[in-house]
Design brief:
This protein is α+β, with helices and mostly antiparallel strands. The chain has helices at about 60-65, 125-140, 145-150; strands spanning about 5-10, 15-20, 25, 30, 35-40, 75-90, 90-105, 110-120. It starts with a strand and ends with a helix.
């Protein structure tokens, strides 16, 4: 099923908009999904949302078609800064990202303070092993809710 979510986040001073789909199940903080990112630097879309920026990809076109003529509005915001580095672990390439910022739902606020590991190439077991090592060394707990879901759940 196609169930997109969109977010914007700064990466190295850039504003990026993302749609994600699939992968509704999570276990021990492991999210498996597809995504498509578009850099919004110097774009009018970084102020006014427009799904047309995703129309280059098939899932983006599907999203545009399904939402045609519907007004977009802000439900929640995920405002954070991401610092990232690519790591070679065993025979896998893994991106480690540290996100710091806040979740916003109207007047409600929540904290974003997390490490994400993303497999670029290689074996999923390497990501799981590295995650376990980092979690044990720094006493971290896995999060099974996305930033979007945590923002929706703010009370």
């Amino acid at each position: 099923p196609f169930s997109p979510s969109a977010s914007r986040f700064p990466v190295s001073g850039s504003i990026v908009s993302t749609i994600k789909w699939g992968g509704e199940k999570t276990e021990n903080g492991l999210f498996v999904h597809e995504e498509y990112n578009v850099c919004l630097d110097n774009s009018p879309y970084n102020k006014v949302p427009d799904l047309g920026i995703f129309s280059e990809k098939i899932k983006g076109r599907t999203l545009v078609e399904r939402c045609e003529e519907k007004a977009l509005f802000v439900v929640v915001e995920t405002n954070y800064t991401r610092r990232r580095a690519k790591l070679l672990y065993n025979n896998s390439i893994i991106e480690a990202a540290v996100d710091m910022g806040e979740l916003v739902k109207g007047d409600l606020r929540g904290k974003i303070s997390e490490i994400e590991l993303e497999l670029y190439e290689g074996n999923l077991n390497d990501v799981i092993e590295l995650t376990n090592k980092i979690s044990e060394n720094y006493k971290l707990e896995p999060e099974n809710l996305s930033k979007f879901a945590r923002a929706i759940n703010l009370k």
